[in-house]
Each structure stands twice: as C-alpha cells, then as structure tokens.
Amino acid sequence: MTSAPPPDSAFLARLRAVAREQAAPLRRVSCAVDADPALLPGLLDGALPWRQFAGLPAAYNPDPLRVDGRAVHLRWCAEQVVVWEELARADAGIALGLPGPAMSGHVMAELGDPQQLERYYGRLADGPVWTFFGMTEPAHGSDPAAMATTLTPADGGGLLLNGTKRFVGNGARSATGVLFARRHRGPLGVVAVLLESDRPGFTGVPLDTIGLRGLELSELRMRDVPVAEEDVLGRHRSATRQGMWAAVRTFNRYRPVVSCLALGVAQAAHDYVTGHRGDAHSAAAPRFAEFAAQLAGVRAMVLAAARSADHDPADGTLASAAKIRATRLAEDITTAAVRAFGPGARWEHPLLDKWARDARAFEFMEGTSNIQRLTLAQGYLHGRI
Ligand SMILES: Cc1cc2nc3c(=O)[nH]c(=O)nc-3n(C[C@H](O)[C@H](O)[C@H](O)COP(=O)(O)OP(=O)(O)OC[C@H]3O[C@@H](n4cnc5c(N)ncnc54)[C@H](O)[C@@H]3O)c2cc1C
Fold first, then answer.
1. In CATH, which superfamily holds the domain spanning 243-381?
2. pLDDT per residue as tens digits for the range 301-336
3. Bridge partners (DSSP) listed for residue 206
4. Atom of ligand 1 nearest to the CA of 367
5. Ligand 1 nearest-atom number relative to CA 212
6. 362 in Cβ contact with 211 (< 8 Å)
7. In a mutational test of the pocket of ligand 1, which residue from 103, 215, 368, 374 has the highest number of ligand atoms less than 8 Å from its CB?
C-alpha cells in the first residue's frame, strides 16, 4: 500500500488525539443532519472538516491531517481505524457522508491506470466531491454471481450500461464513482467501471432510511448509459485480476473500517451513560464497566484486523471476526444505553435514539454476520488463524 513503515502504537495514540479534536464539530450538527441529510453539503463550507479525513493521495491534498507537524494521508488501514473510530464517536452518519474517495478509492488504487487515476483524483481534488461504490442490486443483493447489471456492446461502437444498484452510500450526491457490471458470463465476467454521474441515462435517487441518515443511501439507475473502453478498470490486468478480485480486496480492507465505525458509535453511547450522574448511571454502572472492558478488547481486535489487511489484503479472516464482534457490541451498548434511562429515553435523549438506529446499519454494511462467519470458517480451515 505504501513504502513507509507501518504506524506504531505511540504514533497511533497521537493520531487518535488529533482526530478526536478535529471530529468534535460533527457532534454539534448530529441531530440536524439526522433530521435532514440534505443539510450536510451546506455544512462543508466551514462548519465541518472533510479534506483532512478524505484519504486523498499527497499530490491531490494540500491540507491533510497533521500529527506533530507531519502530514498523514491515511493510506494505512491501521491509521484509518483510529481516525474513523473517533469520527464515528462524534457522528458515524456524518463521517460516512463526508466527500472523498471512500470505498471507490480502494478499487481505483487496485485497478486504475495512470490516466484513470488522474481523471478520478483530479476531480476529487477540486472538492468537495462525493463518490459511489455500486455493487448491491435490488433483486440479488451483493451476490456477484447473480449480478444483473450489464455492460454490452453498443451499435456503432462503445458499450452500454444497464441495471439498478441499491443501498449505495452517497449515491445520489456523487459526481463520480466505481460501478460493477457483468460483461461476460461466469465469475470472471464482472468488471468495474469508472463512471461520472452526469452521463445520459444515469439517475441517483436518495432512499428513506432510519439509520446513518447522513450517508444518504441511494438507488442508482442506469438506462443505456454510454461507457467507453477507457472507463473499464483493470483493462491492463489479466482476467483474474479485475472486477471481483479488486472488490474482495476492497471489502477486506474496508471491513476493519466498518468495525471501527460500529465501535465509535458504541463508545459514544458508553460515554453518554457514564457521563450522566444520577440513578440511571448508578443502576447501569456494573454492566457499563463490563462494556468498557469489551470496548477495549474489540478495539484491539479491530486494530489487529487493520494490520492484517495492511499486510495482506487478500486475507479477510480477522476483518470478518472483528466485524462480527464490533457490530454485536454496538447493538448491545446502544440498546443498554436506552434502557438505562428508562421509559421515554428515546424522546428525552435524542442522541441515544439516534445511536440505537445507527448501530443497526453496521450489521448489513459489508456483509451480514452470517456471511462473515462463512469467511471466518474458511480462514480457519485454511490455517489463517
Ligand atoms: C449503511 C449501509 C451502507 C451500504 N453501502 C453500500 C454501498 O456503498 N455500495 C453497495 O453496493 N452496497 C452498499 N450497502 C449494501 C450492503 O453491502 C448489503 O446490503 C450487504 O452486503 C448485505 O447483502 P445483501 O443485501 O445481499 O443481503 P444477503 O447477504 O442476501 O443477506 C440477507 C439475509 O440472508 C442471510 N444470509 C445470506 N446468505 C447466507 C448464507 N450463505 N448463510 C446464512 N445466512 C445467509 C444474511 O445473514 C441476512 O440475514 C450498504 C448497506 C448499508 C446498510
């Protein structure tokens, strides 16, 4: 991923402190964006930091995060899980709704040729620009074997893209992104294309959701969208190193990030309960002391998964284990936090209500716990853990 040595624990602790401080503005607009996600773009002009967290390559980011005066471009997954946990602790929906490369950036890093990378990052550097990662479909979910979105030859040259993607983060507000489509039959027939959203026949529609509303999950509809060969990612690679190969490596790298987001929400709810004095806290104190130990344990697991992804993005075993544990803990703590304040808690403590809704989204993001268990079992059978 990068030629620099991996970040050590002391550096990560300093990075966490900087990220925590910079993430604070997200909490101030938490409830407003939850009520109306369309407010988010208007807050980027001063109220919310975004360039520091976008993970843009050095050549495209004049204003990166700095620790001890040193620029940090968040190329390591180990850095990302520290920073994104702090962002999620402030507000996970807004963190995910910030502009930048996000998941599509991982695919670009794996498959983009120099011209495609310049086209993609050049546009993002103008910022704020959102990007999409279009994989999941309404009738087939995220099962690539059943993918129905097609890329077919057009009469008179070029290609045509047809299909629908659903539950795509930031989809309707994105200017560009990566979309997966079937070009041929069979597992090697899925390719990734780099696509701008202003092409004819392309529509993005926000979906009404109850959790992580700042992310503005969307449906993308493609009807005879023109695609050129130069848009197809990985053309310079062998067939076994194209669409699904890059998708799997992206998922393995991004699952520790989803895990740290769940952890951040869990930590926020924990902070809230332990920060409130009075009956609610005293009755819940023993349970929340246990949760504190579990948060520390899962945090160590998420970091181990991130380091494993940095070392070998082809191995998603630890990433799956971390996601199962972090997701469950976020659900348990946000539920216990609401219960700690008794009847009416969701009305009287809107953040607790919000976190309980947000926490449920992580189970589905990047594959459900059942799917993670299958990956974990494969890893065990192959001696990876
Ligand atoms: C907040 C959020 C953000 C998202 N962002 C994006 C995005 O940017 N781009 C994108 O393309 N998608 C995105 N998604 C979609 C997400 O990746 C999928 O919803 C997720 O991977 C689940 O896949 P699925 O819908 O195919 O469900 P399935 O995997 O089909 O699961 C449905 C149910 O069946 C169970 N199940 C399925 N297979 C098995 C099995 N073999 N054994 C046992 N049980 C099984 C599951 O556990 C689950 O209960 C997002 C989703 C959320 C919630």
1. Butyryl-CoA Dehydrogenase, subunit A, domain 3 (1.20.140.10)
2. 999 999 999 999 999 999 999 999 999 999 999 999
3. 218
4. 21
5. 1
6. no
7. 368
